[in-house]
Amino acid sequence: MQEEEEKEYFDLTENDYLKKVKLKTVPLIACSCKIGGISSGVTEQGVDRLENYGNYLGIIYQINNDILMCITDKKRREKSLEKNLEHQALTLPLIHSLNQKIDMEVSDMALGPRMVTDIVQDLNYCKLSNSSLEYAYEKMEYYAALAKEELSYFSKSETKDKLIFMVDYFLNNKEFDF
Question: Does some domain include residue 42?
Answer without folding.
Answer: yes
